[in-house]
Structure formats: C-alpha cells, structure tokens
Amino acid sequence: MADSLPSINFGFEDLRDRMARFTDRFDNFIAKGRRRVLEERNQFWINVAELQEEQRAKKRDIETLGQKSSSHAQTVSKEAAEKEEMNTAIASITQQRDARAQHRDRIRSEIVATQKQISQRVAAQQLHAKALDTQARFNGPELDFWETYLCMRIEGAGAADRLKFVFTHVDERDWDREAWFELDTAGRDYRVVLVKPKIESEVLERCVERLNENRELGLFLKCMREAFVGGIK
Fold first, then answer.
1. DSSP H/E element including 196
2. Among residues of the chain, what percentage have pLDDT more than 90?
C-alpha cells in the first residue's frame, strides 16, 4: 500500500512557518494566562492583607474590652462601701460583661471563619496555578506532534472558546482535500458544533464522549481523523 502512494510535496517550509506562527500564538495565549493568574494572585493577597488587618482590628477591640472590664472591676471595688450603689453598679457591670462576652465570642467565631476562608482560597489558588503551569508545559510539544502525525492544523473559529481543526490526506483520491470540525470549549463538557464532511453521529458522539471523560486531546484528534477517513471511503 505504501509503495503505491503518489509522491507528495508536503510543503515543509510552509508547514514550518505555519507551525512557528501557531507556536507564537500559543505562547501569547500562555503568557496572557500567566498574567491573568498573576493578577488574580496579587488581588488575592490584597484581599488576604485586608482580612488580616480586619482580624488585628478585632483583636484590638477585644483587648480594649478587656481593659474596660478591668476598669469597671476596679470601680466596683471602690464602691464596695456603699451597699445600694454597689448593688446597682454590680448589676450594671454584669449586664455589660455579658454583652461584651457575647461580642467577644462573636468576634472569635468571625476570626475562625475568616482564617478558614483564607486557607481555602490559598489552596484553591495554588491548585489553579499548578494546573495552568502543568498544562502549559505539556500542550506545546504534544500539539506539534499531533499536527505532524495527523496531517492537521489548528485555526481560530471566530470565537474565544472555539477552535477549528483541519485535516488533509483523508481521501486517497485527493490528498489535498480538507476535512474539518469546530470544537467549542466554553463549557465543562466540550462540544463539536460544526463538521465537514459529515460523519456518522454515533461515531462523533463516541469521540466527544471519550474526550470529556479523559481529556486526552491527542486521542480525540486521532479518533476524528479516523472518522473522516472512514466516512469518505
């Protein structure tokens, strides 16, 4: 079969130029993503600083309340000689103490809740940054390999969350014939919104279902190419 194939000019210089342009676009995309992560991280630490300042302010309030309680206790001691005035003072101070104790407990609960939120946000930010960094290191070499191996190129589809994948060498009678599809990545589950030429719906659904299950883009592209070749035959 390989001996009978026609001699083909793959246009490696043009391919290399297109691959370089794609790499530049992809690098720009990664750079923007990293800047966005950095901005989000800076904003997060600003929020953390504000929360910490609020926590310190609440601690100062607690210390102030403690000092006031001590001052009232001294006042009660000085008025111990006057029974009626002492009883009145004790009742007043008891009410104030209870109110302050409730306020103190509420502040402590807010501090605990704030610390928990800070820990959750830090963990989520670290996980997000790690995922972006891992994906950035993995995507470039993998895409270059699949573009070469599958005779494929990637184009924009006119929307921020949509990519167009164009295959060649899918028709033995016309190696220049193109087959393409557009992939919508806006939602949690990816969708193929346009495809030409048409392929069997069951085959398409199976390819997309596997992609959403394992997130293996390379295997998905291979599945789509095989679907195009099988449909054209």
1. strand 191-196
2. 6
